[in-house]
Structures are given as C-alpha cells and as structure tokens.
Fold these 4 entries.
Entry 1:
Amino acid sequence: PVARNDMLETTGYSFLPAFGAVGFEFGQNITKGIGRPVAQTQNGSVTLSTMGGPTSWKIGNDTYAFVSAGAQKANYDRTTNAIGYDVKSHYMMLGGEKFVGNQVSVGLFGGYSDGTSDADQSRGSIDGSGGFVGGFVRTAFGNGGAAQFMIGYQDLSYDMSRNVMGSTARASTDGHQVFGAIDAEYMFGQDRLRFGPTGSLEMYHLSVDGFDETGAGAWNL
C-alpha cells in the first residue's frame, strides 16, 4: 500500500479530490457569511434581531442591505488514496433582508468566490472561482429560539496544473454546486449573558465536468 500510494503521488492522480475540497470551502464560506439567526426579548416578547448577521444598513421600511467578505485556509491530510493539500479561499457577498413582522425575515444574496488548492510537495494546484446566488428565511420563536434555512447555487470554473514525471499537465473544466444549511438555537439569559443549545445541518452537492489534460504526453489524464 505504501509503494502504491507513493506511485499515485508521483503521477499526481491522487490530487483529484481537491476539486471537491475547493467547492466545499466555497460553500462553507457562504453559509458562514450570511450569519446566524438571533432572537432577543423586548418588553416581554421575543423578536428577531439583526445582531447575528453580517454588517448591514437600513435601506427602507424594515428592509436592510448587507455586505460580507472573508477568507479561510484549510489543510487536508494525506490518506491512503490521496495526497495532502491546502486550500485557500476568499469570497465577497452582497444581499438584502426584509423583516416580515417582528419574528420572520426573508433575504437574498449573491457574490463571488475564488480559491486555490496546492498539493503537498509542489505536485500541482487547482484554481477555482465562480459566482453564487441564494436565499434564506429566519424566524424567532418561543422565549429565546431562532432558526434559519438557507439554500444557494454556485457556478464554478477550474484551472488545474499537475506536475508529473518532469512535465506539467494542464486542464480547465467547469462545475457547479447546490448547498443548503439549517441553523437553530434556543438561548436563555438577558442582555450580554446568553446560554443555551445550538445546532446546524449543512448539505453540499458538487458536480465537476470531465476534462482532458495537455502538456504531459502519455501522462495526461
């Protein structure tokens, strides 16, 4: 198994899972970027707050615009069938949120992500980028509960270079992903002291088109 894995790393074939990792990091950036639902108590009743969301400003009656940007880095360790790699990603998002009463809001967002996955030992890299759109619903309930449902779609483009046997194989392809998340919490306490259970469930479905490499002769995929 060790010799087989070394051969896979030498030819670079085991770098292919990085396509999925780039898309996954993009999706996580987006789900984190829209923030979380937060409930607050005012005059004995629970209302939905803007505190859990990104930086926002009022643009109309119970309507807010928001902007969110960020970056993150993730490390994927070597496994039996895959070389290790690092993923660096960035995103920028603009959106709007409309409050429907005191306990419900709906929102839309769109933006752009880009990132790079670098294989260990300089075996290659995958550059990914793409625009995304999505929407969400937030609600407050009970005496301190809040929940959020989000769904989105992202179109993706990839450029890959793979160092193999003294040559560099290159390819470009497209892909897309659908992602969604459910977040919920039930907080107790008042003012700045809040405690209670939280939970989340995230879903990512990624598809990458086939491709043909050039530049490495018989070692092209």
Entry 2:
Amino acid sequence: MALMLFALCFSNVQLQAQQGGQAARSGATTGSSDWAWGIGLASLAVLGTVSGIIAASATESPTTFSHN
C-alpha cells in the first residue's frame, strides 16, 4: 500500500516538474526569463518538499505519529 502511494505521488511530482519545465521553456522564448526562473525554482522547491515528506513518512513507523 505504501509503495503504491509512493509511486502515485512520485508520478504526480514528475508531472509537476515537467509542467514547470514547459512553463520555463515557454517563458524563455517570450523573453520573460525572470518569471521562468521563478517558476522553475518554485517547482524544484515543491518537488523537494513533497519528496522529503514522502521519504520521511515511508521510513517512519505509524506508531511514531500517535500522540499518547
């Protein structure tokens, strides 16, 4: 179950990265490279955050999230 969730989230992250790359590429061709850099960096930040959360939740046992 966790592996399936990880694969689903990873494919979603890849799609977001691809869309960010397309936005950066289109921004560079229209001359608004500052916006393209912002979009690209924001996409990388989202990618890193989501990947980190997924990796952390995959390595932790469910008992560490209980508040007793």
Entry 3:
Amino acid sequence: MSSKPVAVTRQGRLRGLAAGDVHAFLGIPFARPPVGHLRFKAPLPPESWRGVRSADSFRAAAPQPELPVDPGLEISVPGLGAPQSEDCLYLNVWTPAVDHARSWSGYTEATSPWGRVRRPTRRPSCGRTTLSWWPSTTGLAPWDSCI
C-alpha cells in the first residue's frame, strides 16, 4: 500500500503511515497535555482539529528518572536518551491494512524508552496500541520501588 492511510476520530481525521500490510498512526492525543493549570488534574478530552492531522511521528515519552548506565551500554539500549516531556499523553496505533468490509480488534501495551512491558508479536495481526507513559500511581515505571 503506497498511499498514506486516514483514520477518523472524535476529534478529527489523522493521516498515518503505510508500511507493507501495516498502517501506523503515531502521536495520537488521547487527553489534553497535563501542563500548566492542568497539571495534577483529571485528564480532559483532547481538543478537536480541522482538516487532517499528521500522525507520522512519535511524541516525547513521559519524564523518567535517569538511571546510571555503564559506558557503552547506551548504544545497545534503544530509546535511551529519547526526548521526554510532561506533554506525553499520546497513543501509537498499528493496525493491519484494514479491509473496510471487515472489522478488527486490538490489544494495548505500555512502553518506555527502556523497553516494553509486553510484546507478544512483532507483526500486528489484530492491531496494536502503545502508550508513552507508565500507568502507575507515581507515574514512574512499575518497578521504580525495586531500583
């Protein structure tokens, strides 16, 4: 598939990426950025937009504490040193190149610059969604109390 796929959401249309038989929609807002007066408040729905919004690049990950890393290891750890921001409430969605005559379902996983919580398959056969934040009470990785 060579054309860029377009998805329709409640807030507006998104133009993603096509790679073979997979479509990707990256950096989809699922809440308003929790910055300024919205910091530490319940999330609000994202604002709508007009036209087609580009969904072809990852957004910043949620801030995480810097961990000590042995020299040379940073080369072998993907995402280490990636941009971080409190403006991090975005989804990344991979789907099969959708046949509009059929429906599909998907699953969710959480990611961080240091790895994935769950990765059952490399190729999404039923869809895949990732988050750029950790769903914990501290906002940090679930194992932060073990470090």
Entry 4:
Amino acid sequence: MYLVPRNFFHRIHSKKVSFYNIFFKTHVDSSSVNSFGFQQRNPGFVSNPFRMSVSSYATSPIRRRRLRGPPTRSLRRRMSRRAKAAAEPVLDEAQFQRAISKLLPRFTPEELCNVITSEDDPLVCLELFNWASQQHRFRHNVSSFHITIKKLGAARMYEEMDDIVNQVLAIRSLGTEALYNTMIYYFTQARKLTRAVNIYKHMKDMGKLDCRPSITTYNILFTALLSTGKNSYINYMYMDTIRCLFRQMVDDGVEPDVYTLNCLIKGYVLSLHVNDALRVFHQMGVVYSCRPNSFSYDYLIHGLCAQGRTNNARELCVEMKEKGFIPSVKSYNSIVNSLALGGELDQAVNYLWEMIENQRSVDFITYRTLLNEICRQKQVEDAVDLLEKLQEKHLLGEATYRDLLHGIEWCEKQMVFILSCGKAKPTKAMKVGAARHTELEEEVAKKVPIQVTSAEDKWALRFINFIVGANQLLFEGLTRELPL
C-alpha cells in the first residue's frame, strides 16, 4: 500500500508523460483505495505490466468561497476577532523575571510603581501588577492603579484596562481626581462614551472632596462629545448633552475656562446654531471673566461663512487682527470662498494676498472657487493674470497650476463642448459659438456673419440663440432670438 496524492495522476495526464499508461479500478469497500496498473508505452522495452494498491488523498488547497457583495457584519466581526487573535502579543518571560528581580522581598506600592514606570512592555506591566496582587500582605494604592491604567490605555489594551478599572470602582474609598480623569480620558479614546459617563457619575456619587469632577473632567467629556459627530445632525444630538453637562458644571460651582467656552462655541457652530455661539462669545468677558482667544474667533468665522453671513465674518476678522491674533488657515479659506461666492471678488483677492503674506497655505478648493467666480463675472483675463502671478511667486505646484489653468480654459471653451456634444466634427456655426463667452452676444449677434448651409448649422444657431436669450433673461430680464 502506497500513499500518493489523488491529483498526482491528473498531473501525469496533463503533462502528457509518454512512459506509462495508467489504469485504475476503485475498490468497492472504499472510494479512496484504488488499484492502479502501470504499463510501459515504449514498444522497444518489454516488461510485464504490474499492479499495485495505493491510497490516494487530496492535496489541492481548499477553494475559498467568493463573496457576493460586501461582507456581512457577522463576517467582519469574525475576521476582526481572528486578526486580533493572530496579532495578540506574547509575554516576554525573561523581561518579566528581570522586572521581579528589581523588587525587594517586602516591596511597597511606591517601589512597584517605579518598576512599572520603567518598563516599556505593557504586558510585563500588567503581569507585574497581577503578580503583586497575589503577594502576601501587599495592597495596591492609588499610584500603582494609576500607572497601570496609564500603561494599558496608552497601549490600547482596553479590555485589560477595564478589569483594572473595575477593581478601582469596587473600592469606594480609593480614588483621586487624577485617577478618575485618566480612566475617563482613555475610555473616551476607546470611543466608549457610555463607560466614560458612568465613571463620571460614579465620581460624583462618591462624595469625596479630593475626587470631585473638576474643569479637566468636563473638558475631557466635552472634547469626546464634540469629536463623535460627523455631520450637523449628529452634532445637534450631542449638543443637547453638552448643554446639559455645562449647566450641571455651573450648578456644581465649577468655573468654566476658555477651553470649555470654546467647546461650546464649536459645538453650536457644528450644529448650525451660530446665534447661540455668538451669545456665548459675547458672554465670555461679561459673565465668565474669560478673554476670547484665536480659536474662539476661528470657530465663529467659519460658522458665519458657512451660513453666508460674510459681513459679520469680516467684522470678526478685523476685530481679531486688532487684538493681535492671526486668522487660521480654515478662517482665511472660509472668508475667501464666501466673498468669492458672494460676488465680492476684489475683497476676496485682497484676503488671498493677505493670507499668503501671513504664511497661511491656500488649499486647491479656494484657488478654484476664486478663479471660477472671476470667470463667471466675465473677467477671464483677470483670472489668467492672477494665476500667472501665483505661478511667478512659486506658490503653486506644477500639477496644481495645470489643473487651475485647465479650469480657466474650460470656462472659455465650455460653449464648444456643449455645441459639439455628440458630433464627430464641429461645424462652422459651432466654431463660431466657441468664441469667448465674455463677448458671446456681440460676436454672434453683430460681428460674425453666419452661413446656414445645412440642418446642423441651423440647429447650432438655434442653440446659440437659446444660450444668448437665457443670458439676457438672467441679467436683463428680456429674451430675444437672433434672426437667421
């Protein structure tokens, strides 16, 4: 009996081996045990055919099932668990033993804290903490809990950190403000807001003077709630939570600082409540004795520009510069885009050069919006001149310059694209329609004689008449058709 791969014989046939003919007969009792006969095919060599009994097995890899459509949620969870299990770190026993050797026989929690601080491997720190918990007459204090939670949280070992946190919460007499703030912070980093809020409530219910929520606690929660939403609707829902949390903070006698008020302003702006953001901004110095900083102005300028309130944004920008602050990249880009879309092109260009002088980087969307609006106001030459000035000062890369130049050329040639759409070759009337759109009416109606010689020319001329009439309806309120 010989063990051979089942697909071995298929490979012999596929390679067209000229030595043997293969005959096989399946046994009745087992489909995997076959009787094969080998007979030499070379007629010059005479030998008796022989037979042998073999047991075949499959060596071809298992065919993976192809997914039809995106993977399901359960499949993604299984894949995630397998990836985590494959990437699970392994404890370094030698390093763990070296860490234990640094401790005295009757070590204190402070000495354990120093050893854990000196270790870089979070698994060693966790194992050292658990080993110390099993030692006779040893009890962890706030320092050992704190440093272990920090090590595990920084390594994103949140499940192991949760076990240590449960041990802290089980001892109501144990805990400080710094320890609870650390636990809340790392749970917000793990996107476990419910767990962080529960720890905050536990912190309030303890009633210890040295473990009351402070301004740092509230700022951590505000930051986590603001970073959750990805659109205005989600921010609107979380803004109610932020508002209630802020009211509770004030009722508990905790004075808000500039960072807290900026979080409120940012939350109102993201939830499209700019008037409430302005109210908080004006109350900063009167009610809360805080001076606005550059972030306060930046959030408001961006929110006002997003709602098209360009004049208010410009006034805030002037006030901001009078107080010695320089607007951020986001504020400048918002103002330039808002002014350009509002038709105030001169002011937009002035803010653009001011932005460059203050060494703020202009993004591609701002360049494109400004140039497109200049072209829309029939000032294509001004757009080209502005682009050339930017290129001369080495403010644009080659790829950015080509993309912006292509956009300006598209403004000039958009008519020939529209008129020649679906046509193999544009006719003469279509080429006439490709004149610069800044002088389209004058070129077509007064100066350019059009010879209508075919049905295509007639169709193109009617299309030009439609475009001209639409332009007059937009700017003058009248419509007319060019005579043939």
